[in-house]
Amino acid sequence: MQKSKIAIEQQDRDLPKLSLIYEAHPHYGVDIFISGKEGASNLGLLRRNDITTVVNCAVNLDFNFVQQDKIVSDHEGSIYGPGEIRYYKIGLIDGVGNPETQMVAAHYILRAALEQILPNKPSYPCRDRGSILVNCRGGRSRSVAVVSLFLHLTLLDEFPTLDDAIDFVRRKRALPVGEYYKAPKPVLAEAARRAAEWIRMIDAAQ
Known about the structure:
The chain is an alpha/beta fold.
């Protein structure tokens, strides 16, 4: 399926529904997108951009990608089964309240989403490895912090500081300059800064 490299589908506001942040990451060979709830919930939009994996940064937002009737179950009022999209949940608060280690965990969950190899079993029907979407409610703060941290740590020559990565992601996400003070929230940017130090020590010890 031929996908659009522009990936700009407008919402009611000026922010794009879906933003291509980084094309063909050299370590993983996939495109990285950011969106808010409108983009992440639009299965047709995800498919048109060859997005097969969603990493949800928000604790107060969920999606049901289960659409295969033959393997969907209803137990105690909950619908479950393999979804149309590989779905990972980080669960960050958009502000204070996250544990010190949660941004560290966010980085490793994003890496796991890119590196995990699913077994060839009927219970794992969605094994395609396409592009990845990182979302939060608005696609302005939590997702920006997590993707910036990931780019900084995996592409150090291109993004030698976290601030370099944040500035890049802000521009690619088309965030208004007037919102930079809260995109990402300062407490999340600081959490990402501390997480980068932890992750360097963890990776060096391996």
